[in-house]
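Continuing from the previous page of notes. For each protein in this section, the sequence appears first, followed by its structure tokens. Read the first protein now.
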Amino acid sequence: MAFNYKRVLLVGATSGIGAAMADRLVLEGANVIAVGRRQERLDAFVEKHGSEKASGVRYDINDRAGLDAFVEKIVTEYPDLDCVFLNSGVQHQIRLSRPEEVDLDAFHQEISTNFNRLVDLSIKFLPHLQKKPVPTALVFTGTLLAAVPAVAVPAYSASKAALNTYIMCLRRQNQEKSTKIIEIWPPLVQTELHDYMGAEVGRNMGMPVQEFTDKTWEQLAAGSELIIVGAIPPAGNVVKELAEKRRNAFEAMSNIMLAHFQL
């Protein structure tokens, strides 16, 4: 089915891809609940679109102690919620060639933010989505680096590869249910994600965010489950080929395993 969900919770909506997708969703007719850490940006989003179409909730996804309260607040205040869009993420360069300089706490925190916390949120919101009598969706922002890792950002690449594996299993185990599991693979996009390189450099690398949003929306509206935008130079279309071969192998192995595993 097309992407025609009416009330979308977008986690990680205060910058970059998340902010651009939040704007696009409102323009396409959805009511958007923007979630992020920066209250001033949440307020600006609501002011921009009006309180009838937009709202903002401040929450840091790394606040595990507050997770249950956050989820309960959302499903109570917005019982018509039919789509959860998980977009939060961080990225840093790490020199594994200098192991004595590697901050292990920071390494594991990056993986936790990009992977563990999205697992937490998806598991907590899924029961609400699956109970609804209408089609619902759970959307994740991944990356092309889930297929081909980037050597300078190993924690980010590893976390997104893990996220892709989790999403494939989540989708297959819930394929008979009404919640659609969607994954978006952006290329390098001009956002704040790469500010560690300096804002002048990082925010001018890759695909303009508006171009990315337009191309992503085309595939969302077409009902795609895995949305691949752009390519990794010089790999070209190899990412799409890898993703298709991997998915075919996964489905074949899943057919065997699920014959002996009760869902």
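Done with the first. The second protein uses the same format. Note its length before scrolling.
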Amino acid sequence: MQDLTGKVAIVTGGASGIGKAIAETLSEAGAYIAIIDIDLEGARAAAASIAGKDGRAAAYHLDMGDHPAIDHVVAGLVADQGGIDIVVNNAVRTDPDDDKVADIGAAVWTTLLAANLIGPAILSRCAIPSMIARGGGALVHIASAAGLAGEDTRTCYGTAKAGLIGLSRSIAVQYGKQGITSNCIAPGLVLTPAASAAFDDKVLALLERHHMTPRLGTPDDIASAVRFLVSPHAKFISGQILVADGGMTAALPTVAGFRAAGL
């Protein structure tokens, strides 16, 4: 049983999409949820939805690129709830100018790495002392298949996600003896409302061909994996990458092409 009763969990980017599904799933397991998001109204709505199902949640406004504010929010949460047991680094910032290496300006690198890599590192730093004081804890960092292989665009995004993997392993090594686990989940395409709006049917069909499962991922698929990794069942799993991509990265690149050609 993945019971999280009495646990205090931070979910960044919890106002919508994957983050919202994670917040709801951890709440169903009994955890108190601190929903952290740059979209305060969305975070409040997500917290209200959890409360409407007899869960406990609160919304916190935070830009993960504002590093001093991370310290302030975590200190307030520890004062209010007595400590932190779980951190899910899910929030992400994107930029239309995140393109090929030779086409990206320094400002884009600075902004995206500040929010997508340094912010999660600062949040982890702030939460770890509380976890140690409570006898241990669990961190899950939402990486990406783009952190495992290169793309034609989104260089900063992929670099930050690869960096999260390194961050996670460092935490696992440095704090494992104090009862802290740290793991990454690397999703493939997940059909959040934003993703569904961004891709037309032709693109979605192309992407589906490259997944080895009958369908693309959903936010609940990722949320279920998070719930397992922060539960007592996963206490012996740390420093790992759970690739939740429908088998996309398991297949040779030629597989989808041969299948499409009927070969």
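What the second structure shows: Residues 8-195+218-250 form a domain with the Rossmann fold fold (CATH 3.40.50.720). The longest strand covers residues 180-187. We return to this in next week's lecture.
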